[in-house]
Design brief:
The chain is built from eight helices and six strands, in the order αααββαβαβαβαβα. It is of the alpha/beta class and 198 residues long. The strands form two sheets. It has a four-stranded parallel beta sheet. The chain has a two-stranded antiparallel sheet with strand order 1-2. Helix 7 links the parallel strand 5 and strand 6. The longest helix is centred in the N-terminal third of the chain and has 17 residues. It is globular and about 60 Å long.
């Protein structure tokens, strides 16, 4: 296998990148100065060497525990459970959540062979159970897919008997969305979650 084919193959393994895009990226890099390619290679090496999962929440970090787990300004009584570390960034961009996080590392998906033992469920239960009552609420922020819903229900069944409130992110119409172009499931969720004005 040639070096070009090897690089194309590695790019094609990334999510959302097919063979054509991988080929386009490879040829783009080959047209760039060698120093630029070396900087990219060094950055990849550095990330691989320095970034790891936080031992407390599972977030990707260089420090252990991560900055979010170390912060005194965050409310340790509320834990937001997400599927992947990248979901934390999406929630943090809102500036609306000041609790702690827990990364599952995926979602239940029997068709893909992902069961409870493949996720970070045991550390979550340990945080809730061994926290001496410090955790009062667990927000399940899994994606609104069949697998995400199954994961949320599974977690609810495990956590609620521990005397901790389990909540789910609300779903519905996006701001600026048009009813005409919104799918039926989203409209149904918006109707079910409606609230009084004022």
């Amino acid at each position: 296998m040639s070096a070009i084919d090897g690089l194309v193959g590695e790019f094609a393994r990334l999510p959302g990148i097919g063979r054509k895009t991988a080929l386009r990226l490879t040829y783009h890099l080959l047209r760039r100065p060698h120093d630029e390619m070396r900087r990219l290679a060094r950055a990849l090496d550095e990330v691989a060497a320095r970034v790891h999962a936080c031992s407390t929440c599972g977030n990707l970090t260089e420090a252990d525990p991560c900055e979010l787990c170390q912060s005194d300004r965050r409310d340790a009584s509320i834990v937001c459970v997400v599927e992947e570390a990248s979901d934390i960034a999406a929630i943090e961009r809102t500036g609306a959540f000041l609790g702690r996080y827990h990364v599952l590392g995926g979602r239940l998906s029997p068709l893909e062979g992902v069961g409870p033992d493949d996720l970070r469920v045991t550390p979550l239960l340990a945080r809730v159970r061994d926290g001496g009552g410090a955790v009062r609420e667990v927000i399940v922020a899994t994606n609104p897919s069949v697998e995400g819903e199954a994961t949320a229900l599974y977690l609810q069944r495990l956590i609620r008997p521990l005397g901790v409130r389990v909540t789910r992110l609300a779903r519905g119409m996006p701001v600026g969305g048009d009813l005409e172009y919104t799918d039926g499931v989203t409209i149904a969720e918006a109707l079910a979650g409606r609230r009084e004005i004022g």
